[in-house]
Amino acid sequence: MYAVRNWLIGGIAILALAMAPADSRAKGVPDSIKLDSLVNLYERVDFNHAKHIALVKDCAECHHHTTGTLVQDADCVRCHKNSGATPVVACKGCHAAQPFSAAALRDKNRAAYHMDKLGLKGAYHQNCTGCHSKMGGPTGCQDCHARKKLGDAFYGSAAYAPKQARVDEKNRSN
């Protein structure tokens, strides 16, 4: 049932993009984006950007700003109102994959002013999961992220789960 609904939504989104005038989409906007900041634990997520573009009215629904514009997020504008146009809108352009690593914290400005800024994982989850909850999209971790064997080991799940947990899981499925 869920797969059929996703297929229909995807089809409608692609049809809407195909019918849109050629000049209505920004140049250089990718149709697909590979999200791989957690590739050591999960398979890469092939994010269907074209499908999501067709579902929203404005790029700012997902992005704080768009390429070539000033930052619009109220928290950022407090200090960055005169920073100039933004060359990149990728989440990883501002949100660090490892926000609490020694390298990220070494930068004095980050330590002093950006401690409240979400890391990359948090930024994705706040934006994606929040919207998916409202729109009826997938919200389970492995709906979007296929976990690798190393991820199972890291989280102590599947074959790496404590023996009692595996027995309980087996009993629930019977």
How would you concisely characterize the structure shown here?
The protein is mainly α and about 170 residues long. The chain has nine helices and two strands, in the order H-E-E-H-H-H-H-H-H-H-H.
Question: SSE layout and pairings?
Answer:
Blueprint: H1 2-19, E1 32-35, E2 45-48, H2 49-55, H3 74-80, H4 102-106, H5 108-113, H6 120-135, H7 141-144, H8 149-155, H9 163-173
Antiparallel strand pairs: 1-2
Helix pairs in contact: 1-2
Can you describe what's shown?
The protein has one domain: Cytochrome C3, CATH 3.90.10. The longest helix has 18 residues, at 2-19. Helices cover 47% and strands 5% of the residues. Strands 1-2 form a two-stranded antiparallel ribbon. It has 174 residues and is mainly alpha-helical.
Number of helices: 9
Q: Give a count of the beta strands, DSSP E runs of length 2 or more.
A: 2
Which H/E pattern describes the elements?
A: HEEHHHHHHHH
Overall 3D geometry?
A: globular
CATH superfamily: Cytochrome C3
The CATH architecture classification is: Alpha-Beta Complex
Q: Briefly, what CATH class?
A: Alpha Beta
Uncertain stretches: 1-25
Keywords:
174 residues; mainly alpha; Cytochrome C3; two-stranded antiparallel sheet; 9 helices
